[in-house]
Amino acid sequence: MRISDNPLRGQQFPAALLLIAAGLGLLLANLPTHDAIAAVLDAHIAIPGTDLDLSIAHWVSDGLLAIFFIVVAIELRHELTHGELDSPRKALQPAIAAAGGVLVPIAVYLLIAGADPATSGGWPIPTATDIAFALGVLAMFGKGLPPAVRVFLLALAILDDIIGIVFIAVLFAHDVNWVMFALAVVGVIVFALLSRVVAKSGSAGIGVLMGVIGVVTWGLMATSGIHATIAGVLLGLFMSPAPAEKLRHGLEPTVNGVILPVFAFVAAFVVIPQVAPSELSPAFWAILIALPVGKIIGIGLFGWIAMRIKPKGAAPAMVFPDLLAAGTLGGIGFTVSLLLANLAFAEDRMLRDEAILGVLGGSLIALILSGIIVSARARHYRVLAAAAE
Asked: Is Zinc among this UniProt entry's keywords (predicted)?
């Protein structure tokens, strides 16, 4: 199989795999298989001589997901330096739309669940967009759409990821050990310097040393009290471009085919509460509504405002119906939203499970809506193209 033929490097197959894994996790959690799988996920694995003693579920969310964030950070760096966000002019409209796609879902969440101190802390959960899944749905249903729609969505989702990363770093750091954090920063610097040596020499031995330094840096970050995935972000952002792209290319099939499906399975492994809908937590309803509705309104409205403030006579980057299509795609939270749900309600298992169900339900609603709206817009453009021919 040629590399270009690998479905794990595409967009549609990984998106379908992620959805199947999440559905399987939810299904098995609500069958007699629950106890056996839960026992495995709750089993602890410790690293001798360190403070690292995590359950398998946490090894997945803190460890494997850090590799995913390395790939995200490398793509983010590329877009900020050579891609769709490499100038303020290019970033203006998606940046304003991304702001709306964060602020409006937060407002919707707080309106529904903000009055209760037990649930008010979940407001970051509906702010994220799953890049891989949103682009996968766009690829499935968007044949014929202008390339500007994908560019806009990619920029929007990347900006969303930046905000999600900031939330993780700032809001969910507990009892920070600044010495360990400082050592982790030193590890990032050493990793970055070694990557520049590799870029010049191509030494495989130094590449192996980089791998060791990266693992040590992750361990230091994990024990510092700041979420360990931040180590992946920093390593990816400060790595030299050439080896970074090579690493991203090498990791992409593993991330899409193993890491994200495993995380989706573990995160979605929650028991559906056997209660009446009226007894579900306000957090569940807030997330269920804020993801699809808040994203559509926020991205559509703020994107339209961005079009109004462009220089006079300049053509809009996106027409309003396409902004609405992007807004529905933005409501597909999944990966980062599931991580934020785990972090926001880490101390309350019932609330955490209901928040995860809200993420799954809200993302599914957004997925269905986006499939309908994107298909309609794509059909519109295909008709126009046929008429022009």
From this structure: no
Q: Which alpha helices (DSSP H) does the chain contain, by range?
A: 12-29, 34-42, 56-58, 65-81, 88-113, 117-120, 131-141, 147-171, 178-201, 204-224, 229-238, 241-254, 260-267, 282-289, 295-308, 320-330, 335-344, 349-388
The whole-model pTM stands at: 0.81
Tell me the C-alpha distance between 51 and 228, whole Å.
13
**95-136 tens-digit pLDDT:** 899 899 999 999 999 999 999 999 999 999 999 888 777 888
Question: Rounded distance, CA 188 to CA 96, Å?
Answer: 31
**What are the residues facing 45 on neighbouring strands?**
54
Instruction: Give the start-to-end residue ranges of the domains of the chain.
Output: 11-172+227-388
State the SS3 of 308-328: HCCCCCCCCCCCHHHHHHHHH
CATH of domain 11-172+227-388: 1.20.1530.10
Tokens representing 210 are 């980089």
The token pair at 149 is 């729609």
d(CA 18, CA 10): 13
CB-facing half-sphere around the CA of 57: CA atoms within 13 A: 20
Task: State how far the Cα of 261 lies from the Cα of 285, in Å rounded to an integer.
Answer: 25
3-state secondary structure of 31: coil
∠ CA 351-356-357 to the nearest 5 degrees? 95
Cβ atoms < 10 Å from Cβ of 376: 12
pLDDT of 2 reads 43
What is d(CA 213, CA 218) in angstroms, rounded to the nearest whole number?
9
Identify the residue whose tokens are 């961005």: 306
pLDDT digits (tens, 9 = 90+) for 303-318: 888 887 765 544 456 7
Cβ-contact 152, 159 below 8 angstroms = no
Question: Minimal CA–CA distance to 351: which of 280, 252, 257, 265?
Answer: 280
